[in-house]
Amino acid sequence: MFRQQGGIRLKAVFVGAGSMAEAIIAGALKSGALQADHTYVTNKANDARLRQLAEEFGVQAGYEAGAALQDADIIVLAMKPKDAEAGLESIRSFIHEKSVVISLLAGVSIDFMEETIGKPCAIIRSMPNTSAAVGKSATAIALNQFVTDKQHKSALHLFSAIGTAITVDEAQMDAVTAVSGSGPAYFYYIAEAIQQAGEELGLDHETAKELLIQTLLGAASMLSKNDGQAAALRKAITSPGGTTEAALRTFDEFRVKQAIAAGVKEAAVQSKRLGDAYIH
Ligand SMILES: NC(=O)C1=CN([C@@H]2O[C@H](COP(=O)(O)OP(=O)(O)OC[C@H]3O[C@@H](n4cnc5c(N)ncnc54)[C@H](O)[C@@H]3O)[C@@H](O)[C@H]2O)C=CC1
Ligand SMILES: O=C(O)[C@@H]1CCC=N1
Predict the structure, then answer these.
(1) What pLDDT score was predicted for residue 268?
(2) Cβ of 176: how many Cβ atoms within 10 Å?
(3) How far is the CA of 273 from the centre of ligand 2 (A)?
(4) What is the DSSP code (8-state) at residue 5?
(5) Low-confidence residues of the chain, pLDDT below 70?
(6) What does the mean pLDDT of the chain come to?
(7) Is the CB of residue 173 below 6 angstroms from any atom belonging to ligand 2?
(8) Torsion angle (degrees, nearest 10) of CA 236, 242, 247, 250
(9) Is residue 34 within 8 Å of residue 12, measured between CB atoms?
(10) For the whole model, what pTM was predicted?
(11) How far are the Cα atoms of 223, 255, 265 from residue 170, in angstroms, in the given order?
(12) Which CATH number describes the domain made up of 181-275?
């Protein structure tokens, strides 16, 4: 287990203290994947934010991260991709053969990280999503050649604390980013349209909202229970000549399905474009 590797509790340092770092810290402490007294958080310049995390979670936080980094089994990179180079340079001298760098950074390749660190080092590139804040992220991870089985298991355990976690080849990360990284936003977009239509049809804001949220939760549970059989579930609701058929016919006229698929593919293209900026 993550907590006990050879009887030693793993030490983690989060470099970056934004919403993603907070979601992972919250989930990992709750599940026991990490312990507060073995978790250190640092950021670029917001001392109040560090104090807030220290108070809320009991973690160590500050700008004297050297000793914690030196000692760390896990270094989580949690800054924005534009700050990747500075972040990697700040940890480079503390990395040793037993540490693993876990990156949350969208689009930043393992190659880029290896070259910036400049020495053999275990690196795990991940793509969580914002549902991590409620323990429901769908996270994918990709490993470099130096990651040991133990480190791989530890990373899966860590990300399981904020939802589900799977391992993919790094080549699939653009597709993963398009599907599950950006994915929550697509459902919010559809939710906005339904909310608006409900209100235009005469429902008050609260009523439309409650019906919408429960409908989304129910549909997600049904999809999960029925092994992702979206088409079969849709057909089961669509009576001939009925209301659902009328709605779907209208969606088809607007080519909504094709539009969504094209958008998801464009997200993958953009992920690759952003990644290309992080090639030496
Ligand atoms: N928001 C999302 O949907 C997803 C975000 N991600 C990734 O998670 C990462 C973090 O995102 P957020 O938490 O939303 O960011 P954020 O902007 O809330 O937080 C970034 C943190 O990094 C710190 N920072 C910046 N440069 C630093 C440096 N050189 N050294 C130490 N700390 C530094 C900042 O002070 C701040 O605490 C991003 O790289 C993003 O690509 C990944 C999947 C989904
Ligand atoms: O939109 C973005 O670039 C990031 C990556 C995945 C979710 N948000």
Answers:
(1) 95
(2) 24
(3) 13
(4) B
(5) 1-8, 279-280
(6) 94
(7) no
(8) 120
(9) yes
(10) 0.92
(11) 27, 32, 17
(12) 1.10.3730.10
User: How remote is the CA of residue 42 from the centroid of ligand 1, in Å?
Assistant: 12
Q: Answer for the pair 140, 167: CB distance below 8 angstroms, yes or no.
A: yes
- Mutation probe of ligand 2 site: the residue of 176, 177, 269, 273 with most atoms within 8 A of C-beta: 177
CA Rg value for the chain: 21
Q: Give the count of alpha carbons within 13 A of 266, CB side only.
A: 7
Residue ranges per domain, the chain?
12-177, 181-275
Give me the CATH topology for the region 12-177: Rossmann fold (3.40.50)
* Domains 12-177 and 181-275 belong to one CATH topology: no
Residues 86/90/95/100 CA torsion (nearest 10 deg): -50
pLDDT of residue 18: 95
SS (H, E, C) 153-185: HHHHHHHHCCEEEEECCHHHHHHHHHHHHCHHH
Task: For the chain, give the number of residues.
Answer: 280
> What is the DSSP secondary structure assignment for residue 101, as one 8-state letter?
E
d(CA 80, CA 44): 11
Q: How far is CA 181 from CA 28, 59, 128, 175, 209, in A?
A: 20, 27, 6, 9, 24
The residues, ordered by sequence, that sit 6+ positions from 243 with a Cβ below 8 Å of its Cβ are: none
* Cα torsion angle, 85, 86, 90, 93, sign: positive
pLDDT of residue 7: 44
β-bridge partners, 76: 14, 102
Q: Which of 1, 78, 69 is nearest to 40 (CA)?
A: 69
Q: What is the pLDDT of residue 255?
A: 98
Q: How far is the CA of 183 from the centre of ligand 2 (A)?
A: 9
In this structure, what DSSP letter does residue 32 have? T
